[in-house]
Amino acid sequence: MKYLFLILLCIACGDDKLPKVDKLESFRILGAVATQPEVNPLIPPATSTVNLVVSDVNGVGNVTGTFETCIDPGISTGAPVTCEFDPARVPPQAHTINFAALSSRTGVNPNSVTVNVPATILTGRSARESINGVAYIVIFRFIVNGKENVAFKRIIATTRTPVNSNPDIADFLINGVATPPVTTTPPDESDFLLTSSTPPEQYDIINVDGTPETKSETYEVAWYSNIGEFDRPKARLEEASELKLKSSGPVVFLGILRDERGGFDVVKVEAP
Amino acid sequence: MIAILAVLISSLSFASSIEGTLYERGTKKPLKDVNMFILPHKIKATTDAQGKFSFAEVPDGDCELIINLTGYQKYVSQRRCTEVKDLKIYLEKVFYTSFETTVTSKVIKRDAQAQSLTQEEFIKAPGSFGGDPVRAAQNLPGIAASGANAQIIVQGASPDDTGYVINGHRVPIVFHFGGLSSVIIPEAVERVDLLPSGYGPEYSRAIGGIIGLTTKNPKDDRIHGMAYVDLLNTGALLEGPINEKSSFLIAGRYSYIGQVLKAVAMENEDFELTAAPTYFDVTGIYRNKINEKNEFKTTLIISKDELELILNKPAGNDPKLRGSFYNRTEFFRVIPQIVTRLDEKRTLDNSIGIGRDNILVNIGGRYLDIQSSTISQRSEIQQQWSETYKTYIGLDNEIDNTLVQINLPNNYSVGGINSPFSVGENRKFDTRVTTAQLGAYLRQEIKPSADSKWTYLPNLRVDHFTITEETSLQPRLQARYQWDPSLELRSAWGKYSQAPLPQESSEDYGNKNVTSPFAYHYMLGYRKDFRDGGTSGWEFTNNYFYKDLKNQVVPDVQKNYRNGGTGQIYGGELQAKWKEGEYTSQIVYTFLKSERRIPGFGTNPSEFDQNHNLNLIGAYNKERWTFGARLRFVSGLPYTPVTGASFDSDNDVYIPISGRIYSQRFEAFKQLDIRIDRKYIYDEWILSAYLDIQNITNSSNTQRVEYAYDYSKKTKVRGLPILPTIGIKGEF
Fold first, then answer.
1. What tens digit of pLDDT does each residue of B355-397 get?
2. Were both Cys, which of A111, B490, B606, B698 would link to B722 (CB 3.0–4.6 Å)?
3. What residue of B is the nearest CA neighbor of A13?
4. With contact defined as beta carbons under 8 Å apart, do B283 and B249 qualify?
5. Residue B429 and residue A152: Cβ atoms within 8 Å?
6. Mean pLDDT, chain B, as a whole number?
């Protein structure tokens, strides 16, 4: 009850002055898409290529930072996001976000990172860990305007078959109409919706008490805009999100689809 | 002869008898042994045990009936004296307590440092939200409230380290939704007790302290009733005799606070309240004086809180904190108790608590469902061996059979900064466990001689926890010195142990190898009464305490939980009570430091480190009016700053990075509460109206920090704004 009461307070007392999650302004990392969100380390090559999804609408020039890879130190149980604890980590290397190649300074960075998951990552692990997976992470760090931006992406090493694959966005709908990548500014209070060409996958896990369970993915959509505000900036796939325009000018919209276990797809629509 | 008969008839026709009953006005309590006079004839009558009186041979004609009884308004009735058989006279008291139909017994405290509030005290306490006993207990020294949910903090200890008991038996919660009201109607509570540092061996399993509620004995003179309604809830109570030996009390309360919240929620796009938060509780008491030696009493407590809402948007931008939220917390206890006076020197007290606790939290399909059947048992035999030696030997056992069904991400935070719900590794399992907490104790009160000023209490407690397979021997020593009748010095030292929390010792969620945390308490204090046996003047209580916390369970990234935490809490508390005529006031001040050491994180203030806690309480009674006020000033609670955040690309959330644990503080908590009571006394019932305004100055009192989605900015969330409650209560 205490927890719910705090949630109620959290909802009821939300401060409108805090930055909005769906507002594209300064430098942000919005996600990372991997060619293989899951790999089986016992079947080479256990490799995945990762590209950041970024935005820096109000910025200038490219941004250079670093990336490093290592075994997940236990982030889900409260460990800090760092590679310091893995002696076999791949040390930081330079990584540049090529904003010059991104219209509206928003989208998928063309520069990618190749992540090689060690073949031994599951050695000595329990059956539960092998099935549920052990994360190998890639951590990106960028310092922009004096502020450090840290983001990470997991590549799950698992013996589960089949491994997870990315969802695929079929259409970007504005008021029910499929919208091309370049369009005109939609009217105020337009409904935004993504459709997927791939159904949510089913996958197996082993619960903490050893019981097996087959679960189904839940698709989540995140919406972003530089001139408006969505009533549901984070929505389920089947839920439309209404945009309220707050200003005018060149527009960029971004819709990101996640399958809640690392699968990812993104669509950008612009109204110059 | 005819003449004599005429005289006799004549004399009879000019003398009447007046018979009737004398009651206390409003309560209908018969007044016994009261002298009544009829003037100018100077005829006197005295009421019997039922309040009945009889004047014989009162000459017909104008007369004056006079009653002059200390504590009551003078009664003068000019009337024509004629034959009356059932005259009812109602005598009005000078002062009426709040719930007049309740008799509060004298509080017998075993531990000198224990603090108690009787119903008469807590029911009119300003800031107690209509007389709630546990909220009123926050006026006691050493007690503080924890933010919005108003959990009780005893001398800087975690609320998890405080035990809550009703008639000696543990209950799972003490407050309804949001901490506004405790789980038992105030009018059914005889007193609330606080057992702080150095408490005796009768209780255990709480290294912070104990809050205990004792239900009252139902009235057995006649049927009494009470009903009230205010802005948050309504309730009623009925009590009275069943027959010569037994009596009953039944009371219930229902809150409609949820309807208010629902009205607010209708304008909120973020969530829909599908079932407004509601709570109710029922209290039943049956008492039977079986015979001269045996007395039976059973208490029934039923409590239920329920809330359901649908979050249209993820709370805190956490994608998994959305959808349907449902919470239900319900429990009941039946507590039969039989007290047997074996002889003049021995008393046996047996009681059991049978109950069930159900707690269900469902957050968008992720849930925690706890269903627990509980049986607790207490037995105690008191024996006065001699004028200088008394013992209390007792058992205090509890067995719980619990089914826990969990489908939740783990969430192990240090310093109160939690990772988002979406990030935690999901744990799903069902488990049924039977645990026993077995305890036995010996309390001894030893005086070196009958006239000695010293009393020694070499007490011992043994607890066994099956969950950790540990047996803990806990010596608890107390000593008192009665310097003079007005000054008592006291000291205490003891060991206190409690089982780890269920989530800490769970094989699937925590660490089955964690062991029981414990603490050593040290206490030194005195009580000085400056009233010279009267009721006016000052009364001081001053205690100093130190708690040495050992083997504390702390979160651990690898093992979920582990032992190794330590801590210390030390401070002093002062309570100065003053009473003079119609004025009463209290100054209650506590200074404390509460620190915890977690390996890897150093020594830091604890979450409940409130260094200064000042309560100024005053009341003024004038005829049927009572005015009360409470001013609270409490150091702001510490909190852990967030120094940055990392973006979790897979879960679309930011994971906060903690700064130094509890290294920052909110502004000091300041609150002024007032309460005004007005009584209307009618012959056979009393109507009371009250206005209770919490935070009348609308002080913002920061309760927590809210962060932007990426933790780049923050804002402070205020506590409860000005909150008035108006209520009326009728009682007979």
1. 999 999 998 888 999 999 999 999 999 999 999 999 999 999 9
2. B698
3. B717
4. yes
5. no
6. 89
Could you give the CA distance from residue B348 to residue B371 in angstroms, rounded to a whole number?
A: 33
Please tell me the number of Cα atoms within 13 Å of B99 on its side-chain side. 30
Does the beta-carbon distance from A78 to B412 stay under 8 Å?
A: yes
The letter for the amino acid at B685 is: W
Between chains, do A15 and B327 touch, taking CB under 8 Å as contact? no
Please provide the average confidence, as pLDDT, over all residues in chain A.
Answer: 92
Looking at chain A, which residue has its C-alpha nearest residue B323?
A: A236
Q: Do A209 and B319 touch (CB under 8 A)?
A: no
**Which among B309, B650, B717 is the nearest to A262, CB-wise?**
B650
Contacts of B382 (CB under 8 A, 6+ apart): B346, B347, B348, B349, B390, B391, B392
Q: Nearest by CB to A74, from B317, B557, B648: name it.
A: B557
Nearest Cα residue to B495 out of B522, B469, B516, B515: B522
- Name the minimum distance, in Å, from the CA of B433 to any CA of chain A: 14
CA distances B518 to B59, B155, B471, B607, Å, are: 79, 16, 12, 18
Nearest Cα residue in chain A from B650 = A262
Residues in CB range of B7: below 8 A, 6 or more apart: none
Tokens for B603?
Answer: 């020594």
Do the Cβ atoms of A76 and B410 come within 8 Å? yes
